[in-house]
Structures are given as C-alpha cells and as structure tokens.
Write a structure and sequence with these properties.
Shape: globular
Number of domains: 1
Bound molecules: ligand PBG
CATH class: Alpha Beta
Distance between the termini: 27 Å
Largest sheet: 8 strands, parallel, barrel
Radius of gyration: 19 Å
CATH superfamily: Aldolase class I
CATH topology: TIM Barrel
Order of helices and strands: EEEHEHEEEHEHEHHEHEHHEH
Number of helices: 10
Length: 318
C-alpha cells in the first residue's frame, strides 16, 4: 500500500478534495451596531453592521469565497416575529447592499423566526406550543421578501412540516420561480448550536426545540424528512450538524441524487477554536481534516465558519 503514498504520487490517487467552490460562509448582520463585534464564544468570528456587510463580503470574495448565508439580528423583536419579513428589515437591507455591490456573490438567506421572536422559538406560539400550520404563511412571506431583495437561494431552517412546499408555492406565485430552496431538512435538536444562539441572540425563553427539530437518537427519520422536502420541491437538502452526523450524511448520499449540504455548525467551530487557544491541537489542520471528512461522507456543499482559514490555507498551498 505504501507505494502510492510518496509525496509525488499521493495527490494523483487522492479520492476527495476540498475546494472553495464547496464552501458557504455564514454572515451575521446586526441592525443595532455601527462596527463589527466579535462573538465571544466564536473567536475570530464577527457580527457586522449594515454599513460594513457588503465590504466584508467583498473581502471574502477576493479570497475566493463565493457563497454566503445571511443571518440577521434585528433591533426589534416581538411575539410573532414581524421584523423578519419587512422590506426595510435587516436581512432584506443586507441582501440589497451585497447584491448592489457584488452581483456575482451567491446570496443565501436563512429563513426562520427565532432571531425575530421575543420567545426565540422558530414559529408562532400559543401558550407553550409552537404552532406548525400558523407558522407556514409567515415563513413563506419571509422567503418572498428575501427573494425580492435579491436572494439567490432561500434556506428555511425552522423544521416546520410543509415549510418547503409553502415557500415554493409562495415564491412561484410571486414570480420567483428562479429562486432555489435549500432546506435544513434533517436538522437535529443539538447542543452544538450553543455559540450560534449567542451570535444571533436567538436563545429561547422556555422549553427546548425538541418538538420540531429531530431527535439525535434517530437516523431513518432523517431519510423521511429529506424525502418529504424533495417531494415538496427542495433543490438542495441539508444535514445539520455535520461532524457528529457523518453517518446521516452518508445515508442521505446513498439514497438521494439531490445536492446535499452539511452544516459544520457553531459548536463544531468553537470546539476547534477552544482546543487551539489552549494550545492542545492545531486548529487549522483540524478544521481542514474535519471538512474533508464531511466531504468524504458525501456532502457536496459545506456551510462553515472555517471558510476564511481554509481559503488562506488553499492559497498558501498554491
Ligand atoms: C435558526 C438557525 C440556527 C442555526 C442555523 N439557523 C439555530 C437553532 O436552530 O437553534 C444554527 C447554526 C449554528 O449553530 O452554527 N433556526
């Protein structure tokens, strides 16, 4: 076996490769700030103001990154998440600014209510119940408002049943047949989202997300979730988180021919950064190895906070 492991030959027989074309970079836009603020639990990652966001995307594009998923932190929240879908709200403004300056950037928007509701849940509530069908028109309206602002792809992350169908129908009805849907199809109720909730201030005030996000004891259920989303018109399906869910990515790869994305989530990033800070492991090579393993499991696209580091790494290899 060692005959093919010489430095010169190894690249010839490499089965999987990570490319910047595979990566989607998360961008946090905070309506309340004037200049960027570092996220304490995500060293090296920032929230940007509306004034800075386009420039930041421009810098990332110069590094070779091409696709971005936008998360908004609004200045006002209420019980029904009404700052999620206005023309002048944070995500809509950010998308317009980015598209005005960088038409070629692939702009994806996270479609959810948790950043916009005072209770922090991903849907409309009655008492302590998160309502499914009452939430659908609100997220459909949100998706349309993102499309109007110029989003190329909308990414519903709330795990409401029927969300993809409702969004597809609304987009088509408003003349946005061209806007694609990347669904967070198999999204697990996970402790790995902790740092994100600090980043997006989307922690919830009661209960947990287990009545809508998946139980991590299950994997066949993920296949049913993905199947439903495909039937409802999803163009890209997602498994989230990634690193502890490589088996699910692999199962999905074997069953479906749709592009599969994997979300290398905030907690996965923070673990690497913590180990790096302590001097226990080399953060960059860890990140690279993790991302390659996600590809090897079968993901086509990876949403990751490591994309800047990977861009630097791949640049230096050239
Ligand atoms: C919104 C949303 C979350 C993430 C992406 N979209 C948080 C959650 O469901 O609690 C998590 C991303 C990450 O941890 O990096 N629903």
């Amino acid at each position: 076996m060692r005959r093919l492991r010489k430095d010169s030959i190894r690249p010839l027989v490499q089965e999987n490769r990570l490319s910047l074309n595979d990566l989607i970079t998360p961008v946090f836009v905070d309506e309340r700030i004037d200049s960027r603020v570092e996220i304490p639990s995500m060293p090296g990652y920032y929230r940007y103001s509306l004034g800075e966001v386009a420039e930041e995307v421009g810098k990332a594009m110069e590094m070779g990154l091409k696709a971005f998923i936008i998360f908004g932190i609004p200045s006002v929240k209420d019980e029904t998440g009404s700052s999620a879908f206005g023309k002048g709200d944070v995500v809509q403004k950010a998308v317009r600014k980015i598209k005005e300056e960088y038409e070629d950037a692939v702009v994806i928007t996270d479609v959810c209510l948790c950043e916009y509701t005072t209770h922090g849940h991903c849907g409309i509530i009655r008492g302590r119940k998160i309502l499914n069908d009452e939430t659908l028109p609100v997220i459909a309206k949100t998706a349309v408002s993102h499309a109007e602002a110029g989003a190329d792809i909308v990414a519903p992350s709330g795990m409401m049943d029927g969300m993809v169908g409702a969004i597809r129908k609304a987009l088509d009805g408003e003349g946005f047949e061209d806007v694609a849907v990347m669904s967070y199809s198999a999204k697990y109720a996970s402790s790995f989202y902790g740092p994100f909730r600090e980043a997006a201030e989307s922690g919830f005030s009661f209960g947990d997300r287990k009545s809508y996000q998946m139980d991590f004891h299950n994997s066949r259920e993920a296949i049913r979730e993905i199947e439903l989303d495909i039937m409802e018109g999803a163009d890209i399906v997602m498994v989230k988180p990634a690193l502890a869910y490589l088996d699910v990515i692999r199962m999905a790869r074997e069953r479906f021919n749709h592009p599969i994305s994997a979300y290398n989530v905030s907690g996965e990033y923070s673990m690497v950064k913590a180990a790096e800070k302590l001097g226990w492991m080399d953060g960059k090579s860890l990140a690279y190895e993790i991302l390659v393993s996600i590809k090897r499991a079968g993901a086509d696209l990876i949403i990751t906070y490591h994309s800047y580091e990977i861009a630097e790494m791949l640049q230096n290899l050239k």
